Amino acid sequence: MKTKIIFLLFLLFFYLESNAQCAMCRAVLESEEGQTAAKGINDGIVYLMAIPYILIGGIGFFIYKKYKTLKK
């Protein structure tokens, strides 16, 4: 159990930063100076992508805990 927690913490703190945009967003944002809006759009995309995984992971964790307590 200790190794699982350490692995989870490792995944949370060490992540790869990626830049992803749709074609239209990229065309509009590349023409802007300062690139502050582009960084905001990238952060928004990452947040929108991460939330479903966090929710499904949380639901899976609670199902696992419930299943584990029922077996005892």
Automatic annotation (TrEMBL):
Keywords: Membrane, Signal, Transmembrane, Transmembrane helix
Protein's UniProt keywords contain Signal: yes
Stretch forming the signal peptide: 1-20
Protein name listed in UniProt: Uncharacterized protein
Transmembrane segments: 44-64
Keyword Transmembrane helix found: yes
Lineage of the species this protein comes from: Bacteria, Pseudomonadati, Bacteroidota, Flavobacteriia, Flavobacteriales
